[in-house]
């Protein structure tokens, strides 16, 4: 990385955003590491729950990654990121979603179903059960494709319900590494499910 790129934080962000849009995962990791703590503090002030805040930060960065092509640079990257984090946390508070991404099988129904037309009947219990079964099968297949260290981290978080600190102790690595592994695993799972559902 050149000295010119790091001399101005905003310019540096724009360069990293440009590189991330071009597919450079390291550039996005740098943005993640740079803003993780600030986003966490914002989200925690809203939800007042450590593990939920951690998961909402992960969700925020997944939304940022998916929305990156729409970033036009009309405001600073952090301002844009801040708005996404604020919306993510506000939605969680409004919907009382205290289990967001604690369970990897809890994907929003409205993201997985075709849109309902006006006057259409709501989804029946058998249709919902069939869809849930199909999503679980796709999810299981996608988890089996993860590298071992990512699969282990996401399993300890979602299946065992361990905190990030407990996972770090169990996997003999720093908490930041756990956050990164879980984020990468979730990103992979979202991409796989989005492609197939």
Description:
- With 197 residues, this protein is mostly helical.
- It folds into two domains: 94 residues, RNA polymerase sigma factor, region 2, helix turn helix motif (Rna Polymerase Sigma Factor, Chain: A, Orthogonal Bundle), CATH 1.10.1740; 71 residues, Winged helix-like DNA-binding domain superfamily/Winged helix DNA-binding domain (Arc Repressor Mutant, subunit A), CATH 1.10.10.10.
- Helices cover 73% and strands 0% of the residues.
- The protein is built from ten helices and no strands.
- It is globular.
- The N terminus is likely disordered.
Total beta strands: 0
Given as residue ranges, the uncertain stretches (5+ residues, pLDDT < 50) are 1-8, 97-123
- H and E string: HHHHHHHHHH
The appropriate CATH architecture of the largest domain is: Orthogonal Bundle
């Amino acid at each position: 990385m050149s000295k010119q790129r790091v001399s101005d934080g905003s310019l540096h962000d724009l360069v990293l955003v440009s590189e991330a849009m071009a597919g450079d995962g390291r550039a996005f990791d740098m943005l993640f590491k740079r803003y993780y703590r600030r986003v966490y503090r914002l989200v925690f002030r809203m939800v007042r729950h450590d593990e939920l805040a951690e998961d909402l930060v992960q969700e925020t960065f997944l939304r940022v990654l998916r929305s990156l092509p729409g970033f036009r640079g009309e405001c600073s990257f952090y301002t844009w990121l801040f708005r996404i984090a604020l919306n993510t946390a506000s939605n969680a508070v409004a919907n009382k979603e205290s289990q967001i991404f604690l369970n990897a099988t809890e994907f929003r129904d409205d993201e997985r179903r075709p849109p309902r037309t006006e006057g259409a009947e709501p989804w029946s219990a058998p249709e919902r059960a069939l869809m849930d079964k199909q999503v679980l099968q796709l999810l299981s297949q996608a988890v089996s494709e993860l590298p071992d260290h990512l699969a282990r981290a996401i399993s300890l978080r979602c299946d065992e319900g361990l905190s990030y600190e407990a996972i770090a102790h169990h996997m003999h690595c720093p908490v930041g590494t756990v956050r990164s592994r879980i984020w990468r695993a979730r990103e992979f799972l979202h991409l796989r499910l989005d492609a197939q559902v």
